[in-house]
Design goal:
four-stranded antiparallel β-sheet, alpha+beta, 2 domains
């Protein structure tokens, strides 16, 4: 009977302690702005709107890197909001096909601020960016002629320079242009012929880097 009484006395005390620790733990939790879960977390007097703005700023800074001046960050944040407002498959496909050809965030915002896909098509036509009459800028065309590539080139420019890749890996929805292209070529070396593998990385339809091995 004594042992039973001890258990009955300790159990409620443990429950109270566990509840207190859990409450303290929850109060100390902080969401990282880069986690993607910060929206609506209004702890410490931070509003959902402020939380979202902080997250958008961190994303813009990360994407821009060393180019992230204050003006550039604000422009990238605005672009992200325009992109998130795209409605329907046809709007998204039109934009993400054109995005690598639009040379700046400001031009992309101008494109997205047009109120119809028809007007956006007309804009691409007037800028010489429509697929049927598109020409590479002179510096890009020079790289293509030399069978070379550079950061910022489009997938079409790489294809014109190096040909069709041997392998394409797509990350997420193909519409967004996040891909990895692999080229394999037989080259000579001091040990005879060997296979050289070149990998090109694309984000948003443009080259962000490459490797050779």
């Amino acid at each position: 009977m004594e042992q039973t009484k001890v258990k009955m006395t300790i159990t409620p005390w443990l429950a109270v302690l566990a509840l207190a620790l859990l409450t303290m733990g929850c109060a100390g939790l902080q969401r990282s702005p880069s986690s993607g879960y910060a929206y609506g977390y209004g702890g410490s007097g931070v509003s959902a709107a402020d939380d979202r703005a902080a997250y958008e700023r961190e994303v813009a800074k990360h994407e821009l890197g060393v180019l992230g001046t204050e003006d550039a960050i604000q422009t990238r944040k605005l672009l992200k909001r325009y992109e998130s407002g795209l409605e329907g498959k046809s709007e998204r496909e039109q934009y993400y096909q054109a995005k690598p050809l639009l040379r700046s965030d400001a031009e992309r915002i101008r494109f997205l601020s047009m109120d119809s896909t028809g007007k956006r098509d007309q804009y691409l036509e007037s800028r010489g960016l429509a697929s049927e009459n598109f020409q590479h800028p002179p510096l890009v065309q020079q790289l293509v002629d030399e069978n070379d590539i550079a950061a910022g080139m489009t997938k079409q420019a790489v294809k014109d320079s190096w040909g069709v890749p041997d392998e394409v890996l797509v990350a997420g929805n193909p519409m967004y242009g996040n891909e990895q292209w692999t080229y394999r070529e037989q080259v000579t070396s001091s040990e005879g012929y060997m296979t050289e593998t070149r990998t090109v990385y694309f984000e948003g339809g443009i080259v962000t880097g490459w490797s050779t091995k």
